[in-house]
Amino acid sequence: MLSIRAHAKINLSLDIIGKRPDGYHDxxxxxQSIRLHDEVTLRSQKEITVRCDLRFLPCxxxxxxxxxxxxxxxxxQTDDGIGIQIKKHIPVGGGLGGGSADAAAVLMGLxxxxxxxxxFDRLLQLGLACGADVPFCMTGGTCLxxxxxxxxxxxxxxxxxxxxxxxPRFSLSTKKMFGLxxxxxxxxxxxxxxxxxxxxxxxxxxxxxxxFNCLEAFAPRLEIREYKQLLLDEGAKAALMTGxxxxxxxxxxxxxxxxxxxxxxxxxxxxxxLTAPVPSIF
Length: 282
Ligand code: ATP
Known about the structure:
The chain is of the alpha+beta class. The chain has helices at residues 64-76, 98-113, 120-130, 134-139, 174-179, 192-200, 204-208, 223-233, 255-267; strands at 2-19, 25-45, 48-52, 81-87, 142-147, 151-155, 162-166, 212-213, 238-241, 248-252, 272-275.
């Protein structure tokens, strides 16, 4: 039996470079692992099965963790199975890469259980076949992700801070969000180079002033802007939608400020979650 933490991610920046002939978008995004995680437990057994504490999630071959296990077993050309138990803490459809994190945990966990038969590079390819964010979730920490998400460049972790997540009552499907994107209508792009320089210089303010997500301009719900404003009003240094949403997060330098904002949001009936960056995972 093996238990693994499957860490969520936030996008400190997300730029859309263009649309590819295959319909996908070329991206350039600085991603950061955060403390919030699902718990994934693997047990040897005859078949591949998934059990999850969230009833509405599919537990069959539609679950990305199941797909990851299938790909791994096929790679080894074995009929072995694995029992996958997932305790979800990462909100689903929030842009926090929860499904991707679970798939990454399964691939990394299985490779460990089998004595590392698959190279990390090959494991990254299997991850990419599960989803664009899976290679980052296997690498963790802070990275510039380019292309579909498969070209990863590790970066120094963002300076220590407190991250307050606000989860709207609706979720945004990644596919639908990218369907709304019109590349010609993108007026502003993040200063990705400047953001990377700020990370290299451990310049916290340089990081927060450069946080920017191109997808926000296409978000179909007003709440995204309202939630960002709520976070800024509570003293967040920056507030941003993560990935394709719907979760919005604020960066706080003071724990007290973040904790009191969390209390206020809870009293308003919102669903805040206080977390922090993690410099490395696995
Ligand atoms: P990303 O930021 O990687 O695009 P997300 O955080 O917006 O993803 P997820 O929480 O990963 O979204 O879920 C997206 C969809 O994937 C959901 O509709 C869900 O039904 C499906 N799904 C399949 N397997 C899982 C899993 N193990 N955990 C969460 N969602 C899963």
